[in-house]
Structure to design on (278 residues):
């Protein structure tokens, strides 16, 4: 999923308002399993509760342009999550079936790590396997780092220009001077939306902010992708974090987010574009 251009290049103050409203009004409709769209009355109540200037939400009695922009985005975010994202997220059995189908089709050679579970739940990371297989099917024998074991670094004239603070999950063609990097968040066997999963969202934000600074200051652009899956974890327990991920996309901190089985349709085309970059 790419960002809706209508909501790109909004000022940081816009996203401050979106986060403030999400925190105050909530992200989900309780008992309905859907993403919530706040009303103008809820916005006003939230601003008054937080001692903010609620008069900015109306102009001559009508909803102000400021409030309309916020509500318009919240409506879009709810619609895209409810109608597009939710049906594309997979459970463990669905991911296994999808991976095995791709494995039979492409016979991949790329790295397939095991998850960190124990006992009968210790199985391959099926979603990672899907991602690696689909990328390999496009790039062929071209170099690609499916399992970076060092920090991502950009160099110039034999010296480091920037080194990211944390390791990413994959890089093309290498984690040294990559054209594209990606992160994979699959959590099929978790029973609670714990701090580790929440931290994964903030790690993506950190990487995105570092890559934004690299682009703005050094004029060096690296494509940044986030791929996530696990229906129960993200949809049943973590819908508010899905909202935050859509926010990250529209803030420009990731170029695309791929949800669940969306990788099958979208990732080959994305990988083909990497081959044309210099």
């Amino acid at each position: 999923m790419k960002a809706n251009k209508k909501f790109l290049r909004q000022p940081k103050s816009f996203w401050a308002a979106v986060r403030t409203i999400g925190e105050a009004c909530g992200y989900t409709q309780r008992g309905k399993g859907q993403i919530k769209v706040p009303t103008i009355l809820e916005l006003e109540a939230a601003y008054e509760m937080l001692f903010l200037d609620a008069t900015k939400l109306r102009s001559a009695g009508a909803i102000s342009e400021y409030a309309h922009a916020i509500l318009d985005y919240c409506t879009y975010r709810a619609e895209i999550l409810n109608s597009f994202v939710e049906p594309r997220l997979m459970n463990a059995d669905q991911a296994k079936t999808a991976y095995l189908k791709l494995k039979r089709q492409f016979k991949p050679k790329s790295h397939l790590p095991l998850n960190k579970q124990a006992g009968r739940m210790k199985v391959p990371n099926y979603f990672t396997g899907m991602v690696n297989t689909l990328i390999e099917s496009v790039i062929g024998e071209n170099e690609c780092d499916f399992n970076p074991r060092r920090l991502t670094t950009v160099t110039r004239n034999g010296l480091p220009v920037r080194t990211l603070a944390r390791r990413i999950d994959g890089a093309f063609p290498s984690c040294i001077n990559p054209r594209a990097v990606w992160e994979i968040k699959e959590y099929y066997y978790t029973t609670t939306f714990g701090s580790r999963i929440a931290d994964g969202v903030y790690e993506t934000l950190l990487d995105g902010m570092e890559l934004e600074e690299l682009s703005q200051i050094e004029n060096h652009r690296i494509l940044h992708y986030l791929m996530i899956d696990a229906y129960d974890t993200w949809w049943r327990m973590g819908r508010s974090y899905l909202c935050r991920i859509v926010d990250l996309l529209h803030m420009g901190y990731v170029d695309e987010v791929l949800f669940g089985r969306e990788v099958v349709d979208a990732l080959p085309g994305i990988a083909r574009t990497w081959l044309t970059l210099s």
Summary: The mean pLDDT is 93. The longest helix spans residues 195-218. Strands lie at 28-29, 34-35, 58-59, 62-63, 153-156, 159-163, 170-172, 180-186, 223-229, 256-259. The chain has two domains: 5-87, 90-274.
